[in-house]
Amino acid sequence: MNVSFFASRTITFYMARMFLVRFAAVLAALVIVLMALDLLGESGDILAHPGNGDAQLWLYVTLRTPQIIARFLPFAALLATLITFVTLNQNSEIISMKAAGISAHQILAPLVVASLGVAIVSFVFNERVVARATATLSAWQDADYGPIPRDRGIVGNVWVRDGDDLIHAVTARGRGSKAALDTVTIYDRDGGRLIAIVEGRQAVQAAGGWRIADATIFDVSKGVTGKIPAFDFAKGVTPDRFTLASVEPAARSLLQLRTAIADLDAAGRPTGPLRAGLWHKLSGPLSAVLMPLLAAVAAFGLARSGHLFIRAVIGMALGFAYFVADNFALAMGNLGAYPPMLAAWAPFLLFLLIGETVLIRTEE
């Protein structure tokens, strides 16, 4: 009996190549169709901004496509695995391999290794391309598809509450003592009643708080607008309240997200949802490795028995059940109901055990 990890060099390369070709074709088809549908929904908003045209539509496509690839890459791996196994089963190649003494795990091994390569490429792609594209697209959408801020470290549309007062900044940039706010509006309130509205072009840190030079103040009770040389506000409010007001894990690389979590920890702010997103940056790409195992039910059984379609449906159902469980666990992690590591890794480990159990009990 052959007890090696791979059945043979020829079978390994044959099955891995078959899977990768189908994976690339399925992923390309999904991206083209979904990008076209997404563009139809967003083109109106993009063209609504004065001066936008075809160039901005293509810019949106270049920024949105990496997000679609990252999201639907595991789905493409699942469908490619099912197509590969159904093809091999219909051509009686699986039967021939088993007749030659090749085990079910050895039949799956080439696809698992190929999908591991896909997972590694997916992780690098997410870190180098998707995070930057997501950050840029978010900034562009916050500007209503207007000019994109050049500084990628800019946080847009920031709201911070200081007691009863509300502070809004169009952008917050920099870190630590170099942080600054642009186009600032302070809603001075007392017991929920609006007292005054203060506006300024820029706010910088001063005297343990923030200061606006050449501010404009509107007195609500008098209904008059005046100018003041300086206005101090938000005493004791640290810069991270503005620069990290809205940390989106998808818009940051692994190292950037770790830095943001460390800054928030130092400021005493909760970081559970961000830690779940951090761990999911590792478990998410690895979901591609699960797809051959979950879709393996379509590889075995006689094609002429008439149950091949049912087996393919079962394999697809297992794959989609994993995605549902993964999204549910991540949502529970964001709400704080699950610990971050459990939210990111529990669905992966659960369906790994389910797939192995089904494979061993039915084929081994």
UniProtKB/TrEMBL annotation:
Cross-referenced Pfam families: LptF_LptG
Recorded GO CC terms: ATP-binding cassette (ABC) transporter complex
Q: Where does this protein reside within or beyond the cell?
A: Cell membrane
Highest rank taxon of the organism: Bacteria
| GO BP field | lipopolysaccharide transport; transmembrane transport
Keywords for this protein: Cell membrane, Membrane, Transmembrane, Transmembrane helix
Which ranges does the record mark as transmembrane? 19-37, 68-86, 107-125, 282-301, 308-325, 337-360
Membrane topology per the entry is: Multi-pass membrane protein
Q: Which PANTHER family match?
A: LIPOPOLYSACCHARIDE EXPORT SYSTEM PERMEASE PROTEIN LPTG (PTHR33529:SF2), SLR0882 PROTEIN-RELATED (PTHR33529)
**NCBIfam families assigned:** LptG_lptG
Query: What protein am I looking at?
Result: LPS export ABC transporter permease LptG
